[in-house]
Amino acid sequence: MSTITERLNEAQARIDAAAALAGRVGESITLLAVSKTKPAEMIREAYLAGARDFGENYLQEGVDKIETLKDLDIIWHFIGPLQSNKTRPVAEHFDWIHSVDRLKIAQRLSEQRPDNMAPLNVCIQVNISAEQSKSGVTPDQLPELAAQIAALPGLRLRGLMAIPAPESDPDRQRQALARMKHLFDTLRVGYPSLDTLSMGMSDDLEAAVAEGSTMVRIGTAIFGTRK
Ligand SMILES: *Cc1c(COP(=O)(O)O)cnc(C)c1O
Q1: Which residues have CB under 6 Å of ligand 1?
Q2: Which atom of ligand 1 is nearest to the CA of 98?
């Protein structure tokens, strides 16, 4: 059994190799370590091995870990689905949210963001594979929501996030990722400060880096399988 440190280094090496292959050496590609369902001690180990960005999906679990690990200089990302009546803990504890897909949630997050904290960094989630039951805006809805979020004082719009439908064929995998890159580049014409395209997980990180991801969200490859 390899250690978390070894697996983190392997994940980073995969990102670096994919970046080299894509001619993206020197560009910033952040490894977001997805620690949902894993204990705080595993996060500490990954932190000591150099990880700084961690992603959580479940609110209470995430807030508990933020409290437990407050001695560490971690950047916390909320990446799970969020109900509009549960926004306050995200606004008060996290640095980023990747899963905003409705104005009502954005408005509440902005209102609830404490004045003494930097604006909450936001990615809009896009339902890029047009799946029935998935969260995320359609590409059509994106420009309007982006304009609304960009105007909210407690938020800082950073970019887009997607979870493409599982796809074993690499060409098909890349098509959805390429559509995201196109949406991102189009949106950036109006908002040049956008810098984050959050896509790629343990199984498709190479394809995501090839298609322009700037932040890959890696869980299983670092922390092992989840129950
Ligand atoms: C769980 C999760 C991940 C990590 O997935 P792995 O396949 O374990 O790497 C990434 N993004 C989101 C939104 C997730 O919920």
Answers
A1: 34, 36, 57, 79, 163, 201-203, 217-221
A2: 13
